[in-house]
Amino acid sequence: MVSHREIFTDPAALPTFNSHAIESQLHHIDGLAEHFLYFNDDVFLGREMAPGDFFLANGLTQFFPSPALVPLGPPSSDDVPVSIAGKNNRALIQERFGTTPVQKMRHVPHALNRTVLSEIEDEFAEQHRATAGQRFRSPEDIAIPSSLYHYYAFHTGRALAGDLEYVYIDVSLPNAGNRLDRLLLSRDRDVFCLNDTLSTEEDFDRSTRLLHPFLESYFSSAEPVRAACVTTRELRDRTSDPAHCCRRSRRHCRGGLHHRLRRQEEARPEGSAPGPGFPTRGEGRYERRSDHADRGPSGRRPVLHEPGAPAVDRRQRPRGQRLRQLRRELGRQQGPR
User: Fold this and answer.
1) Residue-level pLDDT at 271
2) Strand 191-195 to 43-45 pairing
3) Global pTM?
4) Is the peptide bond before 15 cis (omega within 30 degrees of 0)?
5) Helical residues (DSSP H) of the chain, grouped into ranges
6) pLDDT at 318
7) Residue 274 has pLDDT above 80, yes or no
8) 108 and 43 Cβ atoms separated by less than 8 Å
9) What distance in Å separates the CA atoms of residue 157 and residue 113, rounded to the nearest whole number?
10) How many CA atoms lie within 13 A of 256 on its CB side?
């Protein structure tokens, strides 16, 4: 738990009830990592994720644009606070870089860099100081970690747009219950946001009855989540190359599993029992050839092959050479054109 008194540079701004003001001071937290994730209280992870889902290997952060647009024109009294802050952010980006951002950001965990946040505080000092000094949301606010940071980091070459399996559910709408049931059944989203934009104090009990059983069921046990996806650790164990995994569906690639099983079988001492889960003769599309007589000229076991096919060590011939030979044989069969 971090007190506001520990992070606000101007103690006179406290107490504050403005989330925009509090967000502007996140990078002042003592001991905070250079790269970190910022969650709002209505954002949840739907399944296990890895740092690479939010940060690139070279340190760049990823942001996730929304199809929703920031309304055009200057801020007005008809705009909601989120749109006002988005318009103020856009004006700063237009003045600094000459471009016009139009998209909002999705309600997901925000990948942030402390150095970039400090740079924004110096670059837009007046607006930053004004936002931090507002005890309640005001027409002068800017939204830094959830929007301005991403556009500024993108224009300065320190962030790129990414993509996540995501769903936004407004629990005040009549169809919220059906959407929550569908999410609980499928568990196919990386991130989901449960927001409430229209409910009043009288709707509190209804929202509680809707959300409490859903959250209790979704996060009561890790087993349903593990059944719906492949974790990073399992992916490293199951396949030699992450490219063999379908990242979007999180389902393990059949080919990657065969590579691992083949390596296990090659490393197995002669006479020992096969490893668990290896497809034996007649149990699947591929069969295991474990007899010493079936070894190829290289001394290694043949690769997995179709049942009934002769054991052939394909390592003895480069792939390109095999393709050229097949083309020549096919040309002889077809004859001159």
Assistant:
1) 61
2) antiparallel
3) 0.66
4) yes
5) 4-7, 19-23, 81-97, 114-123, 125-132, 149-155, 176-186, 204-218, 223-228, 232-238, 254-267, 319-334
6) 55
7) no
8) yes
9) 13
10) 17
Give residue-wise pLDDT tens across range 10-63: 999 999 999 999 999 999 999 999 999 999 999 999 999 999 999 999 999 999
β 61-63/159-161 pair status = parallel
Tokens coding 99: 């471009």
3-state secondary structure of 35: strand
Tokens of 91: 């004006």
d(CA 308, CA 232): 36
What is the torsion angle, in degrees rounded to the nearest 10, for the CA atoms of residue 222, residue 228, residue 232 and residue 233?
60
Question: Which structure tokens are listed for 86?
Answer: 């988005």
Q: pLDDT for 103-127, tens place per residue?
A: 999 999 999 999 999 999 999 999 9
- Assess whether pLDDT exceeds 90 at residue 323: no
**Structure tokens of 322?**
């095999």
d(CA 336, CA 43): 67
237, amino acid identity: D
235 in Cβ contact with 242 (< 8 Å): yes
DSSP 298: T
